[in-house]
Amino acid sequence: MLRGASACAVCMAVLLFVPGSGTATPEAQPFSTESERIAFGSHRDGNWEVYVTDADGQNQTRLTARNAHTRFPLWSPDRTHIAFATQVGGPGDGWEFWVMKADGSGARRLCSGLVGKSGREWSPDGRRIALTRSDGGNMDVYLVEVASGQLSRITTTAGEDRDPAWSPDGAHIAFTSDRDGNREIYVARSDGGDIRRLTNDPAKDASPAWSPDGSRILFVSTRTGTPELHLMTADGLRVEKLTSGAHASSDVPRWSPDGSRVAFQIAEGSRYDIGLLRLRDRQQKVLVGTPHNDGSYTWSPDGTRLAYISGRGGAENLHVIDVESHRSTRITATWSLTPSWTH
């Protein structure tokens, strides 16, 4: 479930409902790897399944029919496949990690033991996916080969190693670890070698995100007493605080495709909004702020819009907002979560 958010009159969005079909229909347009599509989890048919939609809400199509809690879709870099998670058993049980073609065909299991609410990423070349698995009570970072399902274990320490993030060149993986008794950012080669700690502060540092050019890493830190966005060089030598009074949540911040802006979640007690930071002049603002739940955001390929989930209207639904005009469009009319936009 999303977290609550407070009212922000300046950022209230204009809502336009765009109806969509509940399941695949003969009228749905054939999938094209050239089109912009958003994958998301939906409960419209009484069970959480993975759906896709055009960015304007048209051609909403169900891709899975697993009769299990299935969501967390994630597009491959070439738009030809979607990875997703399926919960095994009931609430509180483990998750399996699957992959399917973009039209829903050819679904196959990659691994079990997935930590469902930890971040995961496709490698830039689309051959592997970095993820967090739980084995023997510990959380560790693994890589899974998409073609074969072969697992490679990157970390082996006690405690939690989680939220892996690929460098844009595919050579390194940044992740969060509490192996030394405090949550810090580490980096490893993609073969698991040369693990190094990038941050070293009594505060909690977490949720790394590489800049599109690979030169910097965003993260969330409490080193000023309040959770704020921080930015460091990829070697960890230079660190600066980016936000002021934002109370950033631990959700991984998201760079715009051109690296000029960052979307992040603002948390203040029971209030959760979506913030936007412009790197050029460090201007920060609330992009989405309502009395309802707002979060789970993903950038459009051109960097002009965000798809996100909002609880306005009494149910958590998929919306798309233009980051300049703040004009928001409601895409779904039923429970929806965890959107992922094509790259």
Textual characterization of the structure:
- 0% of the residues lie in helices and 45% in strands.
- The chain is an all-beta fold.
- It is globular.
- The N terminus is likely disordered.
- It has a domain of 132 residues: TolB, C-terminal domain (Neuraminidase).
- The chain is built from no helices and 28 strands.
- Strand 6 and strand 7 form a beta hairpin.
- A 4-stranded antiparallel beta sheet has the order 3-2-1-28, with no helix packed on it. It has a 4-stranded antiparallel beta sheet with strand order 4-5-6-7, with no helix packed on it. Strands 8-9-10-11 form a 4-stranded antiparallel beta sheet, with no helix packed on it.
Short description:
The protein has 343 residues and is mainly beta. It has strands at 37-42, 49-54, 61-62, 70-75, 81-87, 95-101, 108-114, 121-122, 128-135, 138-145, 151-153, 161-166, 172-177, 184-189, 196-197, 205-210, 216-221, 228-233, 239-241, 254-255, 261-268, 271-278, 283-288, 294-299, 305-310, 317-322, 328-330, 336-341.
Instruction: Tell me the span between the first and last alpha carbons.
Output: 25 Å
Q: Uncertain runs with pLDDT below 50, 5 residues or more?
A: 1-33
Q: Summarize the helix and strand pattern as letters.
A: EEEEEEEEEEEEEEEEEEEEEEEEEEEE
Helix content: under 10%
Main beta sheet strand tally, sense and closure: 4 strands, antiparallel
Radius of gyration: 19 Å
- CATH C-level of the domain at 120-251: Mainly Beta
CATH architecture of the domain at 120-251, please? 6 Propeller
Number of helical elements: 0
CATH superfamily of the domain at 120-251: TolB, C-terminal domain
Average pLDDT rating: 87
Q: Could you say what the CATH topology of the domain at 120-251 is called? A: Neuraminidase
Portion of residues in beta strands equals 35-45%
- Return the structural class: mainly beta
What is the tally of beta strands?
A: 28
Shape: globular
Spatial ordering of strands, largest sheet: 3-2-1-28
